[in-house]
Amino acid sequence: MPATRSRRHALQLAASALLIGLGLTACGGGGSSDSSSGGSTDYSAYGWSNVTALKIVDTTVGTGASATTGSKATVNYTLYLYDVRVSDTKGTKIDAGTGFQFTLGANQVISGFDTGVNGMKVGGSRTVTIPASLAYGSTGQGSVPANAALVFDITLTAVN
C-alpha cells in the first residue's frame, strides 16, 4: 500500500533527522523559524521545554507476545504535538497510521518511539510523551516544528 510505504519511509528519514538534529543541538545549531509562513512562530506556550524525559503510560496492558529489541513490531499510532494548554497534552494531531511495521532497535524510527514500544505486549496500548531530544531535535521534520515535544498513542497489533 503506497501510504504505508510513505509513512515507513518518513519514519526512517526521521531516524536520520534525529541524528542530525542531535548533532546540531550539541553545537548550538538549528532554529525554530517556520518557513511556510515566512516568519518565526513562538511555540513557548506549548510547554515543550518542560518535557525533558520520556514518559510512558500504559492505557491497556496487552496479553500477547512482547516487543523486544530485534523483533518486528506492527503498530497503529496517532501523533500529536505536546501542548500543556490541553488537559491531556495532546495538541494538534500531526499524523496517524495503521499497520506500521518496524524492527525494534534498528534505528528505523525516532528513538523515543522505539523505546516507547519496547516491552509492550500485543493488544496493549500506550501513550508515550517524547522530548525533542528523543524525537526530531532542533531541526524538526515535515509538519513537526523544531524542538517539539511529541505525544504518541500506540497500540501494538503484532510481533514477529
TrEMBL record:
It catalyses: [protein]-peptidylproline (omega=180) = [protein]-peptidylproline (omega=0). InterPro entries: PPIase_dom_sf, PPIase_FKBP_dom. Residues 70-160 form the PPIase FKBP-type domain. GO terms for molecular function: peptidyl-prolyl cis-trans isomerase activity. SUPFAM superfamilies: FKBP-like. It comes from the Bacteria. Its EC number is 5.2.1.8. Residues 1-28 form the signal peptide. It is an enzyme of class 5 (isomerase). Belongs to the FKBP-type PPIase family. This is Peptidyl-prolyl cis-trans isomerase. It comes from Pelomonas candidula.
